[in-house]
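Lab notebook, bench 4. Continuing the backlog of folding jobs that were queued last week. Each job is logged with the same field layout so the records can be merged later without manual cleanup. Today's entry covers SusD/RagB family nutrient-binding outer membrane lipoprotein, a 460-residue chain. Filled in by technician R.K.

JOB TYPE: sequence-to-structure
TARGET: SusD/RagB family nutrient-binding outer membrane lipoprotein
LENGTH: 460
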Amino acid sequence: MKKLFIPITLIVFAIFSSCDLVEFNNINNNPNQPSDAAAPQLIANAMLSLPGLSSSPNAQYMAQYLAETQYVDASLYPEGGTSFYGWYQGPLVNLKTAEEVATTENQKAVARILKAYIFWNVTDRWGDIPYSEALQGTEEFTPVYDTQESIYEDLFAELKAAADQIDQSGSLSNDIIYEGDMGKWVKFSNSLRLLMALRLSEVNASLAETEFNDALNDGVFTSNEDNFLFQHLADANNQNYWYGQIVDPPIREWWALTVSLVDLMDPYNDPRLPVYGNEVRNGGGYAGLQFGEEDSIGTEDFSLLGSDIYAQDAPVYLVTYAEVLFARAEAAALNWTTEDPATNYNDAIESSIAQWTGDASQATAYLAQPDITFDPGNAVEQISTQRYIHLFMHGYQAWAEWRRTGYPDNLVQPNGNAVPLRQSYTSDEALNNTQNYEEAIQRQFGGQNSIYGRLWWDQD
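JOB STATUS: finished
OUTPUT FIELD FOLLOWS
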């Protein structure tokens, strides 16, 4: 794993936090004052925010990867708004500005790709969001909320156009993700389109199949070397979020693996489990903590979050080759392609194990077990469950896939509260953008800004 050392000028950033998000913000905090910074600097600073797409406790609660050993209320799915403002005021406005001041086509293309990537994440958490009129500064303080359907359609077009815009013989300075390898940016853009297409399987299968195959034919990830990840450093200025939460004094042993996750892994000697969690201090082995448990918790009898996961320089995996292979396996099972679903499924698990453990050979024994061996009659459940295991610590993506497929089917209802179907809008929008906010919640949810309103692509 390469460790990218970032120039000190790119590490000067403020920390922006909200109820559900810890982001690395950038140098341009005011969306109404365009930055004078060059495009490569703006893009690199936007990249610094990317760990925030997964690195928050709330993300893991939505997927029920982690259970709280203290302060359990945060994981009981309370109603209440969460803000998307940090994404608009930080990385999105930087990327829009970068696109405008770019001096090369590669700078413009990467800014477009990253902007599309962040918007995809935002709409899949909140639903309809400001999009076509967003990021206008003083020209538009009250942007309309675009429908999620129209946002998806535009993101498909944006990603394809941006990939076509790239000059693969060129490079990109200050690229802290792919070190200027433009071929990998093309594959990343196409892989995003492929994953986005699968998300529409239950709402518009025809469009989903068309976009999926178009992205696949244009070229997606082909190995773990293509993984889109953020590599942290063993340095306080750019360390893993979880290291700061757990290791920085005082030590906080606040998170354990859930029963739901351990039950999917431990009975099958999953080689990823020793990476995901530490052995129980009182007796060894692995034991999950019931998600939402409020009584007699402690830390001695459960598997706490793995030390490899919260290491100071541990990477954050954002989009991976295994994830693409799971998508290809499901698409083949749906007869969208002529590929073999079993081959893609097996390769996905092997790539996942290689990614997390460094030893792909461990996949052979794991795949040989009857419950793990690919079963064509149970394809979607098997693929979805294995994708969930693989997406550990990328809770928002795992939560989105759970909403789409319903798998794994062993998530629980803490204190009687079902798993949310979205994040609700912040109350600030009701005050600052009243008309557009009210139109959006009426159009989607019958006027109720609830965490149980269904998104456009989430069809029961």
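OBSERVATION: The beta strands are 15-17, 22-24, 66-68, 129-130, 145-146, 228-230, 255-257, 316-319.
SIGNED: R.K.
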